[in-house]
Amino acid sequence: MLSYLLRRLLWMLPMLVGISLISFFIMHLAPGDITSTESAFDPKSSEESRQKLRELYNLDKPVIVQFASHQRPVFWAEKDKDGNEMPGMIQQALPITLLMNIAGLLITLSLGIPLGVLAAKRYGQWPDRSITLFNFIGFSIPGFWLSLLLMYWLGVIHPWFPISGMHSLNYEQLGFWQKGQDLFMHLFLPVVIPSITGLASITLFVKNGMLDVLSQDYVTTARAKGLSDHTVTYRHALRNALLPLITLIGLSLPGLIGGSVIAETIFAIPGMGKLFYEAVMMRDFPVVMGILTIGSALTLLGSLLADLAYAWADPRLRKGVMLKR
Question: What is the pTM of this model?
Answer without folding.
Answer: 0.73
